[in-house]
Amino acid sequence: MKTAIVTGLALAVGLTGCSSMRSARDAIVRAPATCQDVTIPIYFEPDAAQLTPEGRRVISTQAAQAKRCRIDAVRVMGLADAAGDPAANLELSKARAASVTDALMRAGLPAAEFDLSAVGQAGSLTSDGKIQPVRRRADITLKLGPPK
Asked: DSSP character for 138?
């Protein structure tokens, strides 16, 4: 009898714990998407404008998340490192911005105002002449609002 009471009590406590865990998990899963502006960097290999597999995954994930929101504007800015010819770096940063924009559209990002820019190597040096690291990228800024 004593064993049955202890077993029953342990089972009741265990089920209560599972119930509260399930409620917390459900609350996380069902939490509403926040539709706040977000900036996402997409990195490239040196001297390349072709998206990496990781870059494609990031774009696909962000586009899927943004579909839950109203998309007011999309800004894509291509950048380049300080090394090399400034004119070539400007063209490379333009190609990076175009590559990212094309991937966003293919990922099914809803229609929005797109603003593309390219700065090449402008801003790649600090005020004291040091090179800014990791400028092989395009930055995506999604201007998001609550769904209509």
From this structure: E
Per-residue pLDDT of the chain (148 residues; tens, 9 = 90+): 554 444 444 444 444 444 444 444 443 433 345 899 999 999 999 999 999 999 999 999 999 999 889 999 999 999 998 888 999 999 999 999 999 999 999 998 877 888 999 998 887 777 887 877 678 999 999 999 998 7
Cα angle 69-74-75, degrees, rounded to a multiple of 5:
150
Tokens of residue 4, six digits: 């049955």
Contacting residues for 50 by C-beta, under 8 A, at least 6 apart: 44, 99
Tokens of residue 22, six digits: 């399930």
What are the DSSP E strand ranges found in the chain? 38-43, 70-78, 113-118, 137-145
